[in-house]
Amino acid sequence: MSEMVRSIDYSTELESGSHWSLKLRRGSVMRLSDLGGDANVGMLFYNSENLLERYNAPDTLKCQHTFKLSRGNCLYSDMGRIFASIVDDSLGWHETVSGNSHAEHVEATWGARDYQNDHNRWKQNGHDAFLVELAKYGLGPADLAANLNWFSKVGVSEEGTMQLDTSARDEGHHVTLRFEMDTLVLLHTCPHPLDKSPDYPQSKVRIELGQAAPIAKDDYCMHYRPENERGFQNNDLYHIGLGV
Q: 235, 74 in Cβ contact below 8 A?
C-alpha cells in the first residue's frame, strides 16, 4: 500500500464490459487493479456539487507538459481545479486522447451481441456504458467529455497512426487516485477503441476504496509540476467558499 493511502475500506470486482459510478469525497482514494492483463478502464469526472464542471483532458496534458499520465500527474477540471492526483502507479503510462469504443467498433471487431439475446455474455461498448451511468444523474450525450483510459498505452506507427501498445499489458498492474475534491466518478471496463485483440477482452478489474493519508507539505503530486501547485491553491480557495 502506498504511503499516501491510510486505509482501504471497500473492495469490489467488475467483469469486462461493465459500468459503474459513485460520488467520492475529498480525501478518498480509489485503487484500480487489472486482474487479467488486458483490461481497459474508461473514466470521467464531474464536480458532484456542480455537474457542469467536468474533466478536461487537454488542460490536464497541456499544463503538465505530457502526453501520458502516470504517478505524480493531476487530473484537472475545466475550471482549473484538480479532481484527483495519481499517487501510485505500477504501469507508468495511461492515456487520455483516444476516446471511447462505440457499438459499431465493437461489432466490426468482435461481432454483434446484445443483452436481450446474450445476457451477461454480450459485448458492451464504452460510449453506451457511459450514457447509462450519465442518465442516473440527469445527464446525457451532450455531457460526455474526452475520457481517461487506464491501463492502456498508445504509440505511433511508422505511418503516423496511433496504435495500442499491447506489450505493456500484464496482469496485476494497478493505479491509485487520491481525490482532491468531491467528485462524481463514472467508469466502464469496455475495450479500448484501438484494441484489435482476436477476442473481446475478458479481464476483471478490482476497485478498492479508502481514505488518503494527510497531504504533506512536500507532497509528490503537488510539486510534480509547477502548475500543480496552482491547481491545489485553486482547490483550497474553492473549499473555503464551500465552508469546508
A: no
Of 85, 91, 29, which is closest to residue 60 (Cα–Cα)?
Answer: 85
Q: What single string gives the DSSP state of each residue in 4-60?
A: TEEEEEEEEEE-TT-EEEEEE-TTEEEEEEESSS---EEEEEEETTEEEEEB-HHHH
- The span from the CA of 43 to the CA of 66, in Å, is 19
* pTM of the complete model beyond 0.90: yes
Among 75, 92, 96, residue whose Cα is nearest residue 180: 75
Q: How many CB atoms lie within 10 A of CB 83?
A: 29
Domain spans of the chain, in order of start: 5-241
Q: Tell me how far apart the alpha carbons of residues 11 and 8 are, in angstroms, rounded to a whole number.
A: 8
What does the pLDDT look like over 140-195, one tens digit per residue?
A: 999 999 999 999 999 888 888 999 998 878 889 999 999 999 999 999 999 999 99
